Amino acid sequence: MGSFDTGAGDLGSFFRDADAAFLMVKTDWNNIHGHYPAVARRFVDALRNSPVRLAVNLTSIGSEVKGDTGHFAGFHQLDQALNQLSDVDLVHLRASWFIENTLAWAAAVARHGALGWSLDPDRKTPWVATDDIANLAAKELTNPTGEHRVIREVGSEDLTMPELAAIISREIGRPVAYRFVDRKRQDIEAEFLKRFGTPEQWLDDSQTFDALNDGRVRFHGHRSPLPTSMESFIRDVWKPRYLATLADDREPETFPTWSSKD
Q1: Total-model pTM
Q2: What is the pLDDT of residue 1?
Q3: For residue 94, which of 217, 194, 12, 249 has the smallest C-alpha distance?
Q4: Of the candidates 16, 11, 100, 98, which has an alpha carbon nearest to the alpha carbon of residue 58?
Q5: Who contacts 33 (Cβ-Cβ below 8 Å, separation ≥6)?
Q6: Which of 35, 69, 81, 251 is the most exposed place for a label (fewest CB within 10 A)?
Q7: Pairwise CA distance, residues 226 & 11, whole Å
Q8: φ and ψ at residue 179, rounded to 5 degrees
Q9: Average pLDDT per 10 consecutive residues for the chain, totaling 262 residues
Q10: pLDDT at 50
């Protein structure tokens, strides 16, 4: 019928047979700050004259914060646009980091025994499994509260990066270190721009980590416990990927892998 990513097709009739909708924007890394507001406008235009009266929006931790928050800024724009829908009840699921994102470090641990990232070592951040998000969204859609605007903070465990490294270390039986990647170092920025990404991506990532490290982006309220723990994910999903990488490591070097070097 069409694509909300590109705007192609008859989006005006996309929801014509629906009374509820789940909304999620796929990040376009080639158009980081233009994509979210564009898709949000298409959502609003398509929903405004549709029969949909309940929408569950997958948004992000920090989406309430206005300003230069990097990747979180797009979610702020998304939420603000959807809140214009006065005839639609909205549930905003403010999700934390996807636990599946830790798979990006499988090669880093296999090659270098370390995780490289730019979160301050003493800064805790929450993680959540996408299966848990899906289950929460399904519950909101099938058991609506009838409230006009609902915000759910969605995240399981709050962990520092050294704590995450320790969990991985216990599961795989070898030491794993956390290596803080200082984004103020010009040599690191130069290597990123040379091999891994664009100036826009570097700036976006830097603003993202600044917002996390200075505490602007964080959870504020009560969160219900979720089924998937970091320990179980590392054991059941992450470790098999790590072992496969050890057995046949032909993946091209990524920035997470390169930045995990000693």
Answers
A1: 0.93
A2: 65
A3: 217
A4: 98
A5: 73, 74, 200, 204
A6: 251
A7: 35
A8: -115, 115
A9: 82 92 92 92 95 98 96 97 97 97 97 97 97 97 95 94 99 98 98 96 97 96 90 98 90 94 86
A10: 96
- Structure tokens belonging to residue 21: 């909708």
pLDDT value of position 167: 99
> What are the backbone dihedrals phi and psi of residue 213, each rounded to the nearest 5 degrees, phi first?
-70, -30
Q: Do 181 and 213 form a contact (C-beta atoms < 8 A)? A: no
Distances (CA, A) of 159 to 56, 113, 124, 169, 230: 27, 19, 5, 15, 9
Tokens of 6: 């590109």
CA of residue 39 relative to chain centroid, distance = 17
Q: Tell me the DSSP string of the chain.
A: -B-TTT--B-GGGTTTT-SEEEE-PPP-TTSHHHHHHHHHHHHHHHHHTSS--EEEEEEETTTT--SS-THHHHHHHHHHHHTT-TTSEEEEEEE-EEGGGGGGGHHHHHHHSEEEE-S-TT--EEEE-HHHHHHHHHHHHHS----SEEEEEE---EE-HHHHHHHHHHHHTS--EEEE--TT-HHHHHHHHHHT--HHHHHHHHHHHHHHHTTSS---S-----S--HHHHIIIIIHHHHHHHHH---PPPPHHHHTT--
Q: d(Cα 254, Cα 19) in Å, to the nearest integer?
A: 43
Rounded distance between C-alpha atoms, residue 168 and residue 237, angstroms: 12
Question: With contact defined as beta carbons under 8 Å apart, do 230 and 98 qualify?
Answer: no
Domains of the chain: 11-258 (3.40.50.720)
